[in-house]
Amino acid sequence: MNSNALFYESGKRAVLLFHAFTSNSKDMLSLGRALERADYTVYAPVFSGHGTGNPDDLFDYGMKDWVQDGKDALAFLREKGYEEIAVFGLSLGGIVATTLLIEDDSLKGGGVFASPVVSGFDTRVPENFMEWYEAMKKQAGYSREEIAGQKTSAEVQLETILNGLSDHVSSLEPTYTSLDKKIFIGQGDEDKMIDQQASVAFKEKLVQADVDFHWYKGAPHVLTTGRIGKDLQVDVLTFLSTLDWNGE
Question: Which residue from 24, 71, 211, 246 lies 20 to 30 Å from 109 (Cα-Cα)?
Answer without folding.
Answer: 24
